[in-house]
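Tokens in:
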């Protein structure tokens, strides 16, 4: 009797390919950590300082302007993918155009602020396309393509950063690198994806304001508002730095490291969980959605513990231990842990259709952080920011455990041509 061993080998081969993809992505993330350290080693503080505002403005605009496409696209029916893609690109183009117009108006009065908004327009478009591309290939289960894009992204990041820090330093250098790496990553992912969102946008442009596109935009407004408020809360944390007095240096270390851990979680570890959760939601398999959500929460909790330990260790190393109280160190640990506690499941309410509840939750953090900035300073402000992070994370937990609200049609398997590429 002849046994067909090909079917027995296929699961092993798929497992090896997945492991290779995750290994490549992990190596690429290490390159990004290295690139993050280069400006500090090169003492290019002027470039880092100039990068802050364009990055903050683009951070507020790049996802919300796509009508929360990075989250919503993972669970919408197949019949809406083209509409969602065209609408997302339109929103991104309009937002980029508005920022460019603001830059043009401001240039006549202040070249500095004109430049800030011009670079913000660039980063809004490139970052928006990058997050949009990630959503597209996550839905298509193309982790091989994602790993390839992340590797090129990491190499370009290190080379570009080294170039503008050590060889050709100029004030806008890191901004240029940020635009190049996200544009490059987007190009690799979108040219290899089945859903070609740019051609979809160009084809739909003559009828972009018809009833179906307007209906999709109306249905996305709550998700867009939630995305904007969530990004706003993240930016407010950075604004707290000048008001922390003796804790400014400690806060800078904690904020930078937790940002690195969050990036690791959301860009490397979260996509596989999001793939399984969104696939379960589209198949109305509530058990699969809950199972993968719980797994995501468990891994998030483990990362929260690791993040807290690493951040505390880094703070104790960077700052004279005699200048820190036990409560100061504990507060930093709470902030670091709270920042990672829901890191792998932040898109789940979008996927399961709970946009309204997500919008309500998203009011919590910016509200509490804004009030804290107005009323507190020094150590009480640090405590308030850490407590807000933990409270908002705990309040988010019931939201991710709710079942999907509606049955939607499943997504077909990517074409063999694309899968093999």
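Residues out:
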């Amino acid at each position: 009797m002849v046994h067909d061993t090909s079917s027995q080998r296929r699961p092993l081969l798929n497992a090896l390919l997945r492991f290779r993809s995750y290994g490549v992505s992990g190596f690429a993330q290490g390159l990004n950590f290295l690139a993050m350290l280069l400006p500090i080693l090169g003492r290019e503080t002027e470039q880092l300082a100039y990068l802050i505002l364009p990055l903050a403005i683009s951070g507020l605009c790049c996802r919300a302007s796509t009508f929360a496409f990075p989250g919503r696209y993972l669970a919408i029916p197949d019949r809406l993918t083209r509409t969602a893609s065209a609408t997302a690109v339109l929103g991104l183009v309009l937002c980029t155009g508005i920022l460019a117009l603001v830059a043009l108006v401001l240039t006549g009065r202040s070249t500095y602020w004109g430049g800030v908004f011009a670079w913000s327009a660039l980063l809004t478009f490139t970052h928006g396309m990058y997050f949009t591309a990630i959503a597209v290939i996550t839905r298509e289960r193309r982790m091989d393509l994602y790993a390839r894009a992340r590797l090129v992204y990491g190499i370009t990041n290190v080379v570009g950063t080294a170039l503008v820090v050590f060889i050709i330093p100029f004030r806008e250098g890191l901004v240029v690198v940020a635009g190049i790496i996200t544009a490059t990553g987007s190009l690799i992912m979108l040219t290899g994806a089945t859903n070609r969102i740019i051609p979809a946008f160009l084809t739909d442009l003559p009828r972009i304001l018809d009833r179906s596109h307007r209906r999709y935009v109306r249905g996305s407004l709550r998700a867009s508002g939630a995305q904007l408020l969530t990004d706003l809360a993240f930016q407010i944390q950075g604004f707290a730095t000048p008001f922390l007095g003796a804790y400014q240096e400690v806060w800078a270390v904690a904020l930078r490291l937790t940002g690195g851990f969050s990036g690791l979680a959301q860009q490397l570890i979260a996509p596989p969980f999001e793939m399984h959760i969104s696939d379960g939601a589209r198949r109305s398999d509530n058990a699969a959605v809950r199972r993968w959500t719980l797994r995501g929460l468990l891994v998030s909790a483990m990362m929260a513990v690791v993040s807290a330990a690493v951040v505390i260790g880094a703070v104790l190393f960077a700052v004279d231990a005699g200048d820190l109280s036990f409560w100061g160190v504990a507060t930093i640990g709470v902030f670091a842990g709270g920042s990672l506690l829901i890191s792998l499941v932040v898109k789940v309410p979008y996927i399961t259709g709970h946009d309204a509840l997500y919008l309500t939750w998203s009011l919590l953090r910016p509200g509490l952080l804004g009030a804290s900035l107005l009323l507190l300073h020094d150590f009480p402000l640090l405590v308030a920011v850490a407590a807000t992070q933990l409270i908002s994370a705990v309040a988010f937990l019931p939201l991710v455990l709710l079942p999907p609200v509606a049955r939607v049609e499943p997504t077909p398997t990517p074409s063999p041509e694309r899968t093999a590429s």
